[in-house]
Design goal:
- The strands form three sheets. This protein has a seven-stranded parallel beta sheet with strand order 3-2-1-4-5-6-10, sandwiched between helices. The chain has a three-stranded mixed beta sheet with strand order 7-9-11.
- The protein is about 45% helix and about 15% strand.
Length: about 325
């Protein structure tokens, strides 16, 4: 695309608005930043416009509208006049953090989709998870997303569904052992699992919204890199400048903890490990961060913090 065409595209985008849900969180924040960079007008539904994260969005040019997922009237008001919507809900898998059930997550996802139809939204992009699909996983916070996916497909609205792999950011959560020079996770040492940097989710969504003719009607599994346990060990050791030993969670833990055991089984059967076509994604969306690039760049601060203090309980997406 020529510079003039790029400028024309940005001017066209700037005349249209996207409502971004979850803009104070990781995915929504990345989407908002990428859309602003492409010249779109961005709105965000926020519970507290006076919060630090909300004020930071406003300072970047995001229009804040007060409301929450349980208030349909506030969603309808925020959505009215929007060309596109990025839909992501708090995951019921993080109930201790967000305090929502599987049923609430499903209701929120369906409500956003219904209101998008009602208000004449031209493109709905929904962020799901790579484990979603027609076969139930037995994990409510994955199966809830599959139900929302199916509902969106049943509606008369142009839509695209993305299924991100595990976030690179989540690899730095407390409780994995980095402060003890080890790293423990679900992958077997030679088993492959895909990951993606959150900023690349934003890049991908902004591209999708900017080229609906290519993406409407598609469900796209997305990732930026794939790792084995041994590659994790090598990458973490290289970034830390010291040996970091990789271990899979012990079988005894996976047997006694049904939640962790089921997650491990979903990695073993491939559904959480991911099947994204990395070369095809790069061809459509441009360069995507490798794990090593992420460790040296956007993830450096998270990695260094995890090396210093990694003693909190394990948290999962």
């Amino acid at each position: 695309m020529s510079l003039n065409n790029q400028e024309a595209g940005q001017r066209a985008a700037s005349r249209k608005t996207v409502l971004v849900f979850g803009a104070t969180g990781q995915q929504g924040g990345a989407v908002a930043h990428s859309l602003l960079a492409k010249g779109w007008a961005v709105r965000a539904l926020v519970r507290d416009p006076a919060s630090g994260k909300a004020k930071a969005l406003a300072a970047e040019g995001v229009a804040l509208l007060q409301g929450d997922f349980s208030d349909s009237a506030s969603i309808r008001k925020a959505m009215t006049g929007a060309h596109g919507v990025f839909s992501v809900q708090p995951s019921s898998g993080q109930g201790a953090l967000y305090g929502i059930s599987d049923e609430q997550e499903i209701r929120y996802g369906k409500t956003i989709a219904d209101l998008a139809v009602e208000t004449g939204v031209q493109h709905l992009v929904y962020s799901s998870v790579n484990a979603a699909g027609p076969e139930k996983t037995g994990m409510g916070h994955f199966d809830s997303k599959a139900e929302i996916e199916a509902y969106i497909r049943s509606l008369d609205i142009p839509s695209t569904i993305i299924r991100p792999s595990g976030f690179m950011e989540l690899l730095m959560l407390p409780g994995m052992g980095l402060d003890k020079n080890i790293y423990t996770s679900f992958l077997r040492p030679e088993q492959t699992g895909q990951v993606i940097a959150v900023q690349d989710i934003g890049k991908i969504v902004a591209t999708i919204l900017s080229a609906p003719e290519r993406f409407v009607g598609r469900t796209i599994e997305i990732a930026g890199d794939e790792l084995t346990g041994l590659r994790l060990q090598d990458s973490l050791s290289r970034a830390a400048g010291k040996p970091i030993a990789y271990y899979r969670f012990p079988d005894s833990l996976l047997e006694e903890n049904a939640f962790l055991g089921r997650l491990a089984a979903l990695f073993d059967d491939g559904r959480l490990a991911g099947h994204a076509d990395l070369p095809a994604l790069r061809a459509e969306f441009g360069p995507l961060l490798s794990f090593d690039e992420w460790l040296a760049g956007p993830g450096k601060a998270l990695f260094e913090a995890a090396l210093r203090a990694d003693d909190a309980p394990i948290a999962l997406r």
